[in-house]
Fold:
Amino acid sequence: MPRLFLASLALCLTHVVAAAEPQAILLWPKGAPGSAGKTAEEVIELTNNGERIVTQIHKPSIAPYLPAAGKGNGVAIVIAPGGGHSKLCVDHEGHYLARWLAERGTAAFVLKYRLSREKDSTYTLERDAVGDMQRAIRLVRSRASAWNIDPKKVGALGFSAGGELAFMAAMQDGNSDSTAVDEIDKLSARPDFQCLIYPGKSSRIAVTKDMPQAFIVCGYGDRQDIAHGMAEVYLKFKDAGVPAELHVYAAAGHGFGVRDSTAGGVAHWPARLDEWLADKVIKAPRGPN
Structure:
């Protein structure tokens, strides 16, 4: 009986949280390329603190958090949660930040992307997960007018494994395909800025002078490739002449994300992001719609 009660309570809490969220928008309404024949439903589990973990994603989507009418600043961010490419930590590395940003005028979109390291997965990081990020950026740009977004101020933000999607999308030219049948694919898939929150695979980040500018956050106590690696990445940006801002929090490790319960300086990193957006993105000349 106790197990049955807890399972029922978890299901009820999941439905309550989901009901309070914006309706997700499929990246490919007719089915994502590479997902044909995959009909299994998403699996949602709750952690001990009530946060959701999502697996079995075959229908990638974005959940839009839009500022109140007249409160938007024209900036949009696609947020990729982390989870080691085997799951998505959609709350503390997704929805919580998206809601916070929207309340301050920045449109935010939580990305559910396909998982390349999930058991028996046929997806790959480069083709499917990064492809989902690129499609999300294009989709946001395609609705820029309706959502009061500047199509030249669309960025990618990723936590941990999601950070890999952000910088990999930024490293590619993202050129539009003028011959594409789908109008969305005719738009650029490259973000105008990148926000890397304790991303993995830092050694893979190559910086050229035409790369999008970057905002970087990590913890001093994180693993070597992040705590040390992101300092090296910052210097790559500096040497290439690409504007970048780095915050290393002395009392933080990995996976802090965004939570009301977080204490200390690291709890305020979203405010630093908001300041950076004001300094480097919002004040930039508005692009043509």
User: Anything to note?
Assistant: The CA atoms of residues 55 and 87 lie 5 Å apart. The radius of gyration is 18 Å. Confidence is low (pLDDT under 50) at residues 1-19.
